[in-house]
Structure formats: C-alpha cells, structure tokens
Amino acid sequence: MKGWSGRFLRVDLSKEKCIVEEYPADLAMRFVGGRGFAVKLLWDELPPGADPLGPENLLIIAAGPLTGYAIPSSGKLVIASKSPLTGGYGDGNVGTRAAVQLRRCRLDAVVIKGRAEKPSYLVVEGDRAEVRDAGDLWGLDAFKAEDRLLEEHGRDAGVLLIGPAGESQVRFATVVSQRGRAGGRPGMGAVMGSKNLKAVVFKGDEEPEAADPQKLRELGREAYREITEKPNYEFWRRQGTMATIEWCQENSTLPTYNFREGVFDEADAISGSTMERMVIKQRGCPNCNMICGNIIYDHEGLESELDYENVAMLGSNIGLGDLKKVAVLNRVCDELGLDTISAGNTLAFAMEAAERGLLDIDVTWGDYEGATRLLEDVAYRRGEAGELLSLGVREAAERLGGGASDFAIHVKGLECSAYDCHLCPGMALSFGTSPIGAHHKDAWVISWEISTGRRAEYIPEKADKVIEFQRIRGGMFECLTTCRFPWIELGFELDWYPRFLEAATGVSMSLEELFTLGDRVYALIRAFWVREYGGEWSRRMDYPPRRWFEEPLTKGPLKGAHLELEGYDKLLQAYYDKRGWDERGIPTREAFRRLGLEREARQLERFVKLH
Fold first, then answer.
1. Helix/strand/coil for 143
2. What percent of the chain has pLDDT over 90?
3. Full-model pTM
4. DSSP code, position 380
5. Closest CA to 112 of 124, 103, 100, 97
C-alpha cells in the first residue's frame, strides 16, 4: 500500500504489550482513515455496553492517508473512544506534531486497551514501542509534563497528554498537545486517565511513502501558493477565527449568559479587533500556511493561545468582558486539560444554578476570580460543586433537579459550542445531528443560513445543507485527515483533495465517492449510538436545548425570537428522509445496504429492530 502504511499498533496496557499488525486493504478502501478507522474499530472490537472508564474501552489515535505530507493543513489526527460524557461515540481532532510523527513511525493508527498498573506513558520511536513509568509526570499540568517529555525525547517529538482533569477522569477532559492544541471534547482525556496513561510520545524516522511523490510535491506547492492568493487570506492571518466574535454579535448569535441571549454588551472588549492589538506571536499546526493560533499575554502576564470558541464560551457566555482575563481562563483550561467549550458552558450553568438557588457556590456572572477557582475545583473534582460539575451539565442538571435541565445547554450530553440558535434552525439541526453531540465542527451551516436571509424557515434545503457539510467536514476531512479551514474560510476548492489522494495513494476516488464515505461513516456512528443506548434511543436525542424553544431572546435585533418545536421536528424528519433513516433516526436496512454495511446492520438488529 502507498499513502497508507497498512499498519496499526496495538497496545494492551494491562499486559504492557505492544504489537504492530497489518490491516486489510479493504479497510482503507471503505473507511479511508481517521474517523473512519476509529468508528469501524470501535464497532468491531468494543463490547456493547462497555464502561467508558473501564479497561475494556478502546482509545484510538488515527491518521489519514493525507496526514503528514507537505500539502495544506495535513498535520491532523483523530482521537476517539466511547465517551464517558455522552455514552456514545466520541472523538476530536488535534493539529499537532504527533500526527506527523505518528506517520513517520509507519503507522496509521494506535489502538490502546486495558489499564496500566501504575501511571505510565507510551513511547513509539520508529519501529519500537514500549510502556514506561510516568510516576514523575502524574500530577503535573499538561504544559509542565510536555516540557519534561520533550527534554527526554527531543524537541521534535510529538506528544499527546492529559492534565490533572484527565487524571481525575473529569468527563469533559481533553487530550492536549503543544501548549494549547487540544481535542476529544467528549472526554477522551478522561479515558486516558482511566487507563493510567499520562501521555503518548511519537518520534519517527521515515517519511510516509507516496504513490507519486513528485506529483504530490508539485500539487503541494501549487496549493500552498493558491491559498495565499485567496482574497481573505491576509485578514485571516490577522484574526483567524476571532473575527467570529464581531460577526456573531452583529447577527445576534453570540452565546451570552448561558445562551440566554445572542448579544453581549461588552463584545467589543473581547473581539478579534481587540485581540489584534494584543497579539505577540502566532502558532499553527504542522504543514499549515493559514495559521490560526493567536497568542497574547494574559492578565497574569503569561502566554495564552486564543480562538473564537474559547473566547466566546469563557467570555460572553459567562458575562466576562475582559480579554486578558478570558485568556487566563483559557490557559488554565489547557494546563488542566479541560475542554474550553464545555468548561465555559459548565461555568455558565453553575452561575445560573447559583442565581436560582440550586447550587451553593459563591460565583456570579462575570466573576473572574470565582470562575478560576471553580475551574480548578472541577479539574480536581474538589468539593461538592467540583464533583458535581465534573460530570458535565446533563448529569449535573439531572442530579440537581429543580428545573435545572431546562437550562442545561447540551445535545446527547455534550455541551453546545459557541453559536446561539434561537433563530437558526439549520444550525440547531447541525447541533442536533452532530455525530458526537452538540458540536459545530461537522456542519457549520450558520454562515450560509444567515447569508440566505436569516429567515426562520424550516425548509428542506436546510437539511440538505447540513448533510452536505457533514459529508465534507465530518466525512471527507475527518477521514483523509486534514483541516477544513482552507476550504470553509478561504474557498480553497474541494477538487484538490481527490488529486492529493490519488498522488499519495494511487487510488482514484471522486468527490462523490468521498461523500459516500461520509455517509457510510455517519451511518456507522449512528449505529454505534443506537447500540449503546438500546431501548432508550429515540428521535428526542437529536433535539437541541429546551431554552432555544421555550425562552425567547429578550434583547438585541432579534428580541422575541425562538425556535418552533413543530418546525424543528419537520426539519429533523426531512434530514432523516434524505439520509434514508427512519422516524427514530436509525438507518434503515436499505440505507445500510446502499452503503455496504449489511453485516453491521445484522449486528445492530440484536439490539433494535430495523425498518
């Protein structure tokens, strides 16, 4: 095989055993890599009903056939597992040297099971892999631990690791890399912690072999040049995703006070323009020429890497209008290994619960010191509030009672990322049908939805657009595995990617075939959810938060706006119909057959009857 190495590393932490095995070429043809490999491995090898924090759960680190080559934004990998936060499929991608070094070890994925007897870390250097003692690393924050590992293994090593939140098995703990790169929102860091696995270090010595290396180099040079010539390139380099603060404020979609509102009175103070005046340097992923990491000195004089999601969720959503203080909260989350989106959501939930007298904490809206303390309490599961909130807002709300579930902002247990959808039914559908819970990554349709006239229409075209984006963003990009930013932010044409793939692997796949790949992966991820939830599964799992239906906006240009339940239900059904899923949101036998998943359909029928 060219492009793919054709090899997985299997690690059993309980036995401290590492084995490299070859996988069949058919797996690459049908699932390509990254997310595709991850869900197929979880489906085939994870016992149904497995405890997400038990030794039987699998942690999968997977690259794609484009990862690591000198082509735009190829320094990505996927980290996946059964989620301790949602109970369903969970994953995230990370832009990191670890992606490039994984491929230089001639591996396409690492599959980790079991639980180490004591704190440990995995080292993969070339063809050698071993489990080592991590006693001196356990308890360190993610930044300090990574520094020590780089001193030991070289500054060019790729490191994935957890902070204290992962060690404590906080359910929204992430996997961190390179002082602020993070992935695995649904608790992939907690899974590592449950396995006593502090870190994974990759250091390879062999570049991935391409089918046509000269063609791939030529394509890479042309593509890098084309990206720099795109009209929005220079503005992107100045602000990156932070320009979204002003855009969301203008369009009344900036999450404010736990998604009560879509506008924030102090939005200018946390905007991209404000950040631009503070930037001291920038940081990007390997092989990327549209760097998006903007670094400022925070309120404590330390460096913090900002993007839209962490500033909105740790800023406007908790009522904090000081960018330097928001930057501290962001850095603290990265050091502790807490997902910044879920952390901001959880802080806002706690502030509202305290306001309503449901939670006995002394933390109020905009309370920087209180928010900092509470983040540490959550990361260490310290005190009653820290322990409760470490479970995520869905579980915390259920335990609190008193109507707390009405203002717990999540889908399927995963806290919503930073887009208020009181008048965005298409984006609400994107959150509702995201394969990991309420995340924007797979189908960021909100810009399209607003640009088409901001109508509160529940028309089938919105379901079409969600599926289109899921096929591209959550399917093609997550499996190849590269970043979506050149396409979605600058208009870099999609037809580059089949050309990259053919030069790398020798395999010709059209865009339509890659979109079918996306449908196959989405159907199998949905099957995984249904298998794990069994008789508890229903279409209600695909509904966005109650607040967007029941509590209209009270300020801003969209005052009075809210989602309509009947309209959303029709939109959801249109989505199901177009995917070939039944009224429960489960793929039909015919849909499975069309996607070449007949065997998986028969396996799913042990748990639920298919239509």
1. helix
2. 97
3. 0.97
4. T
5. 124
Amino acid in the structure at residue 406: D
In this prediction, residue 205 carries a pLDDT of 94
What percentage of residues in the chain have a pLDDT greater than 70? 100
Q: Which two tokens stand for residue 551?
A: 């509590």
Look at 100-104, 264-268, 281-285, 546-550 and tell me which has the smallest mean pLDDT: 281-285
pLDDT higher than threshold 90 for residue 173: yes
**Alpha carbon distances (Å) from 77 to 370, 479, 534:** 35, 9, 30
Asked if 441 and 383 sit in the same domain, the reply is: no
CA distance 351 to 357: 10
User: Each residue of 439-472: pLDDT tens digit?
Assistant: 998 999 999 999 987 766 899 999 999 999 999 9
Amino acid identity of 601? A
The reply to whether 147 and 15 lie within a common domain is yes
Tell which of 390, 421, 438 closes a domain. 390
Total domains in the chain come to 3
Phi–psi pair at 311, nearest 5 degrees:
-70, -40
Give the span between the Cα atoms of 507 and 64, in whole angstroms: 14
Please return the burial class of 318, using the count of CB atoms within 10 Å of its CB with bins 0-12, 13-18 and 19+.
buried
Contact 69, 49 (CB under 8 A): no
- Cα–Cα distances (Å) from 269 to 277, 311, 466, in that order, read 11, 11, 32
> Do residues 315 and 195 both lie within one domain?
no
Give the tens place of pLDDT for each residue, 22-58. Answer: 999 999 999 999 999 999 999 999 999 999 999 999 9
- The domain of 36 spans 7-203
In DSSP terms, 261 is beta-bridged to 256
Say which CATH number the domain at 19 has: 3.60.9.10
Beta-bridge mates of residue 122: 131, 200
Pair 180, 256 in one domain: no
* Domain annotation covers residue 599: yes
Return the CATH number at 302.
Answer: 1.10.569.10
pLDDT at 455: 67
Assess whether 465 and 568 both reside in one domain. Answer: yes
Q: Is residue 71 part of a domain?
A: yes
Cβ neighbours of 265 (radius 10 Å): 13
Do 465 and 579 reside in the same domain of the chain? yes
What DSSP string describes 593-610?
A: HHTT-HHHHHHHTTTS--
93 or 453, which is more confident: 93
Question: Rounded to whole angstroms, what are the CA distances from 260 to 33, 254, 362, 444, 449?
Answer: 39, 10, 21, 21, 21
Contacts of 205 (CB under 8 A, 6+ apart): 104, 126
One DSSP character per residue, 33-70 reads STHHHHHHHHHHHSPTT--TTSTTS-EEEE--TTTTSS
Give the separation between CA 32 and CA 30, rounded to whole angstroms: 6
The DSSP result for 82-93, as a single string, is E-TTTSSEEEEE
Question: Each residue of 307-336: pLDDT tens digit?
Answer: 999 999 999 999 999 999 999 999 999 999
Helix (H, G, I), strand (E, B) or coil at 116: coil
